[in-house]
């Protein structure tokens, strides 16, 4: 196989894609990006590279629903599982696409290529899929995601260094980090101010729980949804100018579509995110502190 370059998402599933593609192609270069940054990153990459100089350019785990015109090119292969992107697969004419609604893009790649893996490596794929689908059938899925986000610098490379041979448990560093994060989260829930209220979403009143965070948005969202029996958690990171949405299991609102509408964001039906803007700020003004 000739030269290959890969663009992948910056989350655990994106790392899982690189993990599997290493089993399939052995040698390649890769770049970590996000749905929001992809267009800029792809155009900047093309300033120094030509697609025709590569045997293939692979793009994984990125919802490119708004960038199809840019990536529908000969020599590009696209793997994704985001429903909004899958719905537009008929718009592709030149790129080779593997767009399937699945629990994770990692699982999409695994099903398509069925690389030879050890039992430990198969378990790693199952854990990544379990977390990204938020099925949470396995107790190690959430801790694995927390470990991934605990890395600084090149998270994907550090994840591959730790779990390239598959999931064999957590080392002492991982265990210490998880214990520290659990204590920090508990203190946050006990001491932070939370805001709640009813907002009309898709024609119905929805109970919203909100707060300001700097860490662990998924875990905090899950705790708040259960504790306050709300429909949607809206978490705001002022420093990062980011917004996180998560819903309770039986809520029928797509968080991806809500994020797209309110803050030019995206994600999954259960969890999504976007950029802090005036719309979000105005929404928070309608919420009252929990007494």
Topology, element by element:
Layout: E1 4-9, H1 12-25, E2 29-33, H2 38-46, E3 56-60, H3 68-71, E4 76-80, H4 83-86, E5 96-99, H5 105-113, H6 119-132, H7 141-150, H8 155-163, H9 172-191, E6 195-201, E7 204-212, H10 217-228, E8 232-237, E9 242-247, H11 255-263, E10 266-267, E11 271-275, H12 278-284, E12 288-289
What does this 3D model show about the protein?
The protein is α/β, with parallel strands linked by helices and 291 residues long. The protein folds into 2 domains: 4-170, Alpha-Beta Complex (inorganic pyrophosphatase (n-terminal core)); 193-289, Roll (Diaminopimelate Epimerase, Chain A, domain 1), CATH 3.10.310. Helix content is 42%, strand content 21%. It has 12 helices and 12 strands. The strands form 2 sheets. It has a 7-stranded mixed sheet, sandwiched between helices. A 5-stranded parallel sheet has the order 2-1-3-4-5, sandwiched between helices. Helix 1 (12-25) crosses helix 8 and helix 5 crosses helix 6. The longest helix is centred in the middle third of the chain and has 20 residues, at 172-191. It is globular and about 60 Å long. The model has no long low-confidence stretch (mean pLDDT 94).
Summed up, what is this model?
This protein has 291 residues and is an alpha/beta fold. The protein has helices at residues 12-25, 38-46, 68-71, 83-86, 105-113, 119-132, 141-150, 155-163, 172-191, 217-228, 255-263, 278-284; strands at residues 4-9, 29-33, 56-60, 76-80, 96-99, 195-201, 204-212, 232-237, 242-247, 266-267, 271-275, 288-289. The chain is 42% helix and 21% strand.
């Amino acid at each position: 196989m000739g030269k290959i370059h890969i663009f992948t998402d910056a989350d655990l599933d994106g790392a899982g894609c690189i993990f599997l593609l290493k089993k399939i192609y052995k040698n390649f270069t890769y770049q970590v990006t996000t749905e929001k940054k992809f267009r800029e990153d792809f155009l900047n990459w093309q300033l120094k590279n030509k697609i025709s100089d590569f045997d293939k350019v692979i793009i994984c785990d990125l919802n490119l629903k708004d960038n199809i015109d840019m990536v529908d090119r000969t020599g590009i292969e696209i793997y994704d599982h985001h429903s909004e992107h899958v719905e537009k697969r008929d718009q592709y004419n030149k790129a080779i696409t593997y767009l399937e609604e699945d629990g994770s893009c990692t699982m999409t790649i695994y099903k398509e290529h069925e690389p030879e893996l050890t039992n430990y490596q198969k378990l790693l794929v199952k854990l990544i899929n379990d977390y990204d689908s938020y099925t949470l059938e396995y107790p190690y899925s959430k801790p694995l995601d927390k470990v991934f986000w605990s890395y600084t610098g090149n998270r994907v490379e550090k994840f591959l260094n730790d779990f390239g041979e598959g999931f064999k448990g957590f080392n002492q560093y991982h265990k210490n980090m998880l214990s520290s994060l659990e204590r920090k989260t508990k203190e946050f829930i006990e001491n932070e101010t939370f805001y709640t209220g009813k907002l009309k979403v898709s024609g119905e009143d929805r109970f919203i729980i909100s707060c300001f965070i700097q860490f662990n948005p998924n875990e905090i969202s899950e705790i708040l949804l259960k504790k306050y029996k709300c429909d949607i958690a809206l978490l705001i990171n002022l420093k990062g100018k980011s917004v996180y949405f998560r819903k309770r299991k039986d809520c029928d609102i797509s968080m991806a579509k809500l994020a797209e509408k309110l803050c030019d964001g995206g994600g999954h039906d259960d969890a999504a995110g976007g950029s802090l803007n005036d719309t979000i700020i105005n929404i928070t003004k309608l919420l009252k502190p929990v007494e």
